[in-house]
Amino acid sequence: MFISEGDVLDAVHRIAGEIMVDYKEVPQDINLAYNQADRIRCGDNGIFKGVPLTKEQKKLSKIAHSIYTKYRTDGKYILNGDRLIICQSNANKAEIQNEYQDAEINPIGDWTGGTDVDTGATNRKLGSDMADSVTGGGLHGKDLSKADVSVNIYAWLKAQETDAPVEFCCAIGDEIIDGRPYSEIVEIVREFISDLGGFEKFAEWGLV
After folding, report:
1. What is the DSSP secondary-structure string of 13-41?
2. Which 3 state secondary structure label does DSSP give 75?
């Protein structure tokens, strides 16, 4: 699928507003391009694992989703046993405290968030994207030929389905992973991303 410069600019403006974009496009490395020339093959090396979500992780994800319906700005949340820590930018602390009465909310005071703080835009939010399934590589900013994306997501989906940890190893150029053609794994992940509403929606929450 070809993505035009206009598509890229539209996506940037849709997410970040009317900002100036310095757009440059260069050809892919010829050897990497050749790897995908006649069929879809694994586009990277790595060891990837999928781990079922714990009750604690599911509970924290539910809390994060709930807070996000009201405060659609940066937030970081921790649940360690009974200890709940909520760091939410641009928030009414009393309002959140009323709903989560035992939580520690913005421990050192209010904050604004944004690009001057830490947006996770460089694939640093691996924990919130993948929970215990964190291995090599991030889930964002790459196409589905890359194992960082497709094998990571496939492993996570299989772990939730089987309720057991799974682990896969692959080399660039591999055509079979977990007994499946790599192209089949890509299609499973493509359908998963599509059902979420596309890569932009996927980037909001990752896998958790």
Report:
1. HHHH-S--------PPPHHHHHHTSSS--
2. strand
Where would I find the beta strands (DSSP E) of the chain?
46-50, 75-80, 83-88, 104-105, 166-170, 176-177, 180-181
**Distance in angstroms (rounded) separating the CA atoms of residues 149 and 142:** 7
pLDDT of residue 115: 58
DSSP E strand boundaries for 72-208: 75-80, 83-88, 104-105, 166-170, 176-177, 180-181
Which two three-digit tokens encode residue 46?
Answer: 């790595």
Amino acid at position 192, single letter: F
The token duo for 2 is 């070809």
| Interatomic CA distance for residues 64 and 43, integer angstroms | 33
pTM of the shown model: 0.82
